[in-house]
UniProtKB/TrEMBL annotation:
GO MF annotations, alphabetized: DNA binding; DNA-binding transcription factor activity
Organism expressing this protein natively: Pseudocalidococcus azoricus BACA0444
Keyword presence, Oxidoreductase: no
WCX domain boundaries: 242-313
Record's protein name: WYL domain-containing transcriptional regulator
Annotated keywords: DNA-binding, Transcription, Transcription regulation
Residues in coiled coil: none
Keyword field contains Oxidoreductase: no
Residue stretches making up the WYL domain: 144-210
Superkingdom of this protein's organism: Bacteria
Record-linked PROSITE patterns: HTH_DEOR_1 (PS00894), WYL (PS52050)
Length: 328
């Protein structure tokens, strides 16, 4: 019931937004099937008498803006769970749905005694704290345009800032899917016509975006599930290759407590250390991850990653031994 209720609230908020809503982009936004969206829309019409209509220009919309969900009943516990969920979304500054969800929760709170609602808000605000770390600046218009482009299979023209090269470029792009990594890293994945390959782009680094009328077809060999499973952290480049990393006894508990990759296997050693093995694409994020554990991690394979670690450590060493003349 709670999961269904939360989805109905999100669906209601999306329909009330200014963007044109279709079955496809509603399903994409809520990460459910189009059949589920059709069932939910029918549920709103049949059970709650929602004045829902669809038009080619407006998409799904309410013909009466004053209509609300008066028949939705929920316990204090359910409302509290939704309140905490809204706070969690708001902790990620790039969330484009947090305010809509919070507004919906406020309307639902009207069914509770005022003091009970005040108490719930106080607990959510003062006793359960969420922090996302570094904040991002996500343009909601660009995000929603990408949602529509993914749903309608329409190409986009975008102005993109590449942080690694500190430069701006113009790109024609076929957006396949949106992917949010660790809550504050929103990516769009698709085919880049400049590079002629599947690429990732940070949505918050897109400076401008135009939705084109040109349709695109997803590369037949692209499978989202298989593609994402080969990625470590969020690096997508490179050919899948086996990785082996040894972690010492003090570091091993931090490796055991999480599943870092779908392909991972852990070999335990008698002294309490372990070896982590997996098959991944790309080595740059892996290099940074290994360096995070310092002397507690040693790469066993592949040789290319071992050399990347050696080079990085050697350069870092010059910064602390006075061997460099660079002015830092």
């Amino acid at each position: 019931m709670s999961r269904h209720l939360e989805r109905l609230l999100q669906l209601d908020a999306l329909i009330r937004a200014k963007q044109r809503q279709t079955i496809g982009n509603l399903a994409l936004s809520l990460e459910v099937s189009e059949r589920t969206i059709r069932n939910d829309l029918a549920f709103l019409r049949d059970r709650f008498h929602a004045p829902l209509k669809f038009s080619r220009i407006q998409g799904f919309h309410y013909t009466d803006d004053t209509w609300r969900l008066p028949s939705v009943s929920l316990s204090k516990g359910e409302l509290f769970a939704l309140t905490v969920g809204a706070r969690m979304l708001e902790s990620y500054s790039g969330s484009v749905y947090a305010q809509n969800l919070r507004s919906a929760i406020t309307r639902l709170s009207e069914r509770l005694p005022e003091q009970a609602w005040v108490d719930l808000q106080t607990i959510a605000d003062e006793r359960i704290i969420f922090r996302s770390g570094a904040e991002i600046n996500l343009n909601p218009d660009i995000w929603h345009s990408l949602e529509e482009a993914c749903q309608a299979h329409r190409q986009v023209q975008m102005t993109y800032f590449t942080a690694s090269r500190n430069c701006i470029s113009e790109r024609k792009f076929d957006p396949y899917l949106l992917y949010i990594y660790r809550g504050t890293n929103p990516y769009v994945i698709g085919y880049c016509h400049n590079r002629r390959e599947i690429r990732w782009f940070r949505v918050d680094r897109i400076r401008a975006l135009d939705l084109l009328e040109t349709p695109f077809v997803i590369v037949p060999t692209f499978n989202a599930k298989d593609y994402l499973e080969m990625i470590f952290q969020h690096e997508a480049g490179g050919v899948p290759q086996p990785i082996s990393i040894w972690f010492d006894c003090p570091t091993a508990p931090y490796i055991r407590e999480r599943r870092w990759h779908p392909t991972q296997e852990i070999e335990e050693h008698p002294d309490g250390s372990l070896t982590l093995q997996m098959v991944v694409r790309g080595l740059n994020d892996l290099k940074r991850w290994v360096l995070f554990y310092g002397k507690g991690a040693i790469v066993r394979e592949p040789p290319e990653l071992m050399q990347m670690i050696r080079d990085e450590v050697a350069i870092m060493n010059t910064f602390y031994t006075g061997e460099t003349n660079a002015n830092y």
